[in-house]
Write a structure and sequence with these properties.
With 104 residues, the protein is an all-alpha fold. The protein has a single domain, classed as Orthogonal Bundle (Endonuclease III, domain 1), CATH 1.10.340. It has six helices and no strands. Helix 3 packs antiparallel against helix 4. The longest helix is centred in the N-terminal third of the chain and has 28 residues.
């Protein structure tokens, strides 16, 4: 691997980690399934979902596809009954999409 490709790879990994961290912070703030009310929410409570969202964003082309991604990840992680209706994810997904678009 050339030095330039290695540098690009390191930069992309740092950008990905920053994106995951930013998404995890948004998830904690929005707390879409209401974990704050039930527990003392650990800082990494939504880390797996943040990683899944960050990994799937490259397939999103607009805010609606980002919303669909976020809802799918939460339903896959927590089940449809706990995840709740799509509408509660709209503000969260909008912020995730805005954050991701600034990195494009």
């Amino acid at each position: 691997m050339s030095k330039n490709r290695l540098t690009v790879t390191v930069v992309k990994k740092k950008e990905y980690k920053t994106l995951v961290s930013d998404i995890a912070e948004l998830l904690l703030r929005h707390d879409p399934i209401g974990l704050k009310a039930a527990t003392d929410l650990p800082i990494d409570e939504y880390e797996a979902e943040a990683m899944a969202i960050a990994g799937g964003l490259r397939h999103c082309h607009d805010g609606d596809s980002c919303l669909a991604l976020v809802v799918k990840i939460f339903r896959d992680s927590f089940g449809e009954a706990i995840a709740g209706p799509e509408e509660i994810y709209r503000p969260l997904a909008a912020e995730v999409w805005d954050r991701f678009r600034t990195d494009l």
